[in-house]
Amino acid sequence: MTAEPLETRVTNGRFVGPDAPAAAELTIHNGQILAPTDHEVWRTVDASGHLVFPGLIQPSGIAREQALPSVRAGVTTAMADPADHDAACLDWIHAVEVDIPIVAPDAAGTLTDDGWDILTSSSPAHFQAPAGSGFPLIHFLYHEGHLNRGMTLDRIAEITSGCLASAFGIFPGKGSFSVGSDGDLVVFDPESHDPYSDILWPGRVIFSLLRGNILLYNGQIHTSAGDGQRIQ
């Protein structure tokens, strides 16, 4: 008997972050990451030449129009205090204070030296954009942090999702590629131009998944109102 096809397999990308699969391949079934398997799938995402990050956690609206700028920047889980839960098209965490340093750029994408010291250290920290701003988080950190200051790609994943997920007590369910984690991921092309933005840094989030479902494709949100879940 042929095994029942699984949902989604992402192949050939460079996975970065906690428990990134060494085989450059990841399979998601029923919204969660599986142990390596060669079973059939009904959807394959070829991420050749691209970076694959865990989905970002950031302040954001959760309804489609309010969330779109943030989703185009790689956000899959919002920090929010929504009045209309039924409108949620991405997962969300009730926004509360956390006990880790929060570092944010100004509108021009400038950080203080102290801010860079925190982000490039090995201590828990979170890099955060203004709510709903659509600030190009991965683009900025890849070029200004990784290329210009030697920040590792794993550190980018930590300071955009993993550290905050740990502070909220939802790691490794969010912010990780470990087996059993939610199938939230972002496929980023660091060389492409983003046609939806006039940002200063090259790069484009070309695809994202939320619990294995297509969240962003061709610059548009593909989840529906009510698809998002409260995580905490």
Task: Please describe what this structure looks like.
- The protein has one domain (52-221).
- 20% of the residues lie in helices and 27% in strands.
- It has four helices and 15 strands.
- A six-stranded mixed β-sheet has the order 2-6-12-13-14-15, with helices on one face.
- Strand 13 (204-210) and strand 14 form a beta hairpin.
- It starts with 5 loop residues before the first strand and ends in an 11-residue tail after the last strand.
- The model has no long low-confidence stretch (mean pLDDT 91).
The number of strands is 15
Helix-residue proportion: 10-25%
Order of helices and strands: EEEEEEEHEEEHEHHEEEE
Give the strand order of the largest sheet, numbering strands 1, 2, ... along the chain: 2-6-12-13-14-15
Tell me the distance between the termini: 40 Å
**Which structural category fits the helices and strands?**
alpha/beta
Q: What number of domains?
A: 1
Which oligomeric form is depicted? Answer: single chain
Total helical segments: 4
Kindly estimate the percentage of residues that lie in beta strands according to DSSP: 25-35%
Low-confidence stretches: none
Give the biggest beta sheet.
6 strands, mixed
Outline type: globular
Radius of gyration: 16 Å
